[in-house]
Specification:
Blueprint: E1 9-11, E2 16-19, E3 29-34, E4 37-40, E5 44-47, E6 51-59, E7 62-72, H1 77-81, E8 83-87, E9 110-114, E10 119-123, E11 135-138, E12 148-157, E13 160-172, E14 177-180, E15 194-196, E16 207-217, E17 221-226, H2 231-240, E18 246-250, E19 255-259, E20 270-281
């Protein structure tokens, strides 16, 4: 039998080492699996990609396994990888809403929106009415340049305000906010309060290809993100990174490179590069990712 496994992990560095232990007689043989393929026969596994990793223990009496969800992320990637939770408010003219029926996982990020008004929602800072919901965010929402910030959510009950506090993380993604919330199992029965977010609509078309295909800006990469299929995701990450002036994207390699300069400022570094396309950042804000650029 596998001993208590590691918790699901959200990692801010490039790699992490997972541990697995099991007890039994005869001594179980351990192995790690991903996508139905054995990737290691050890009690430790170092990974550098997000995914579900399974630790299996086998002996002559049977087998057991435990999955571990790993999310390797960055302060810009959370804007791309967030899960959208939608409400159908039906045009109601109110500013606080109870939590949608959703299951929250502690290693994921979420954004909230209203289908009817096509507006994003943000956590309310107002003292809640218990008939609607029970929470308020303590402190202001972050600015775009703040990156990921830690905040507390105050929980109200019949005894008064702030009888309990929850630790959350918040990120400003330009057109919306994303939230890293405690898992649903830890906060059963708690409804979060939200209000409409009146951010400017902006312009979703704020990047353009320059120089055709098989071109890229070299020597100015400030951040590299893997497993990025669409250039629109790369655009969103560039738009929330204050130092990003342009980006290179390869759909084949699923690679996004955020640049600290541009072709105009560094023309000698604009070079041939197979499979890559170069984009320059314009003015505006990414509102919704719809199609590939």
């Amino acid at each position: 039998m596998i001993k208590e496994r590691e918790k699901d992990r959200e990692i801010w560095q490039k790699e992490v080492t997972l541990n697995c232990a099991a007890h039994g007689y005869p001594t179980p043989v351990l192995s790690w699996w991903k996508d139905n393929v054995v990737i290691s026969n050890s009690d430790k596994l170092t990974v550098n990609k997000s995914g579900i990793y399974e630790c299996w223990a086998n002996n002559t009496h049977g087998e057991d396994f435990k999955p571990i969800h790993v999310s390797i992320t960055s302060e810009v990637r959370v804007c791309v990888g967030s899960t959208e939770v939608t409400y159908d408010l039906g045009g109601k003219d109110v500013n606080v809403y109870p939590q949608a029926e959703a299951t929250f996982h502690g290693h994921k990020w979420y954004r909230f929106s209203d289908i009817t008004s096509m507006q994003y929602l943000k956590m309310s800072n107002n003292i809640p009415n218990l008939k609607k919901c029970r929470t308020r965010l303590l402190g202001e929402h972050p600015k775009l340049s703040d990156g990921v910030v830690a905040r507390s959510v105050c929980v109200k009950d019949e005894q008064g305000d702030c009888q309990k506090q929850l630790n959350v993380r918040v990120r400003n993604c330009g057109a919306y906010y994303v939230y890293n919330l405690p898992s649903t199992q830890q906060v059963q029965g708690i409804s979060y309060c939200f209000m409409k977010e009146n951010k400017p609509s902006g312009n979703p078309s704020i990047a353009s290809k320059v120089g055709g295909s098989d071109r890229a800006l070299i020597n100015h990469v400030l951040q590299r993100e893997e497993e990025i299929q669409d250039s629109t995701d790369c655009l969103l990450m560039c738009s929330v990174a204050p130092s990003c002036k342009s980006f290179n994207h390869s759909k084949k390699e699923k690679m996004c490179e955020l640049n600290s300069s541009s072709k105009r400022k560094s023309p000698k570094d604009f070079a041939s590069r197979s499979g890559f396309v170069y984009f320059e950042k314009g003015k505006g804000m990414v509102v919704r990712r719809i199609n590939e650029l």
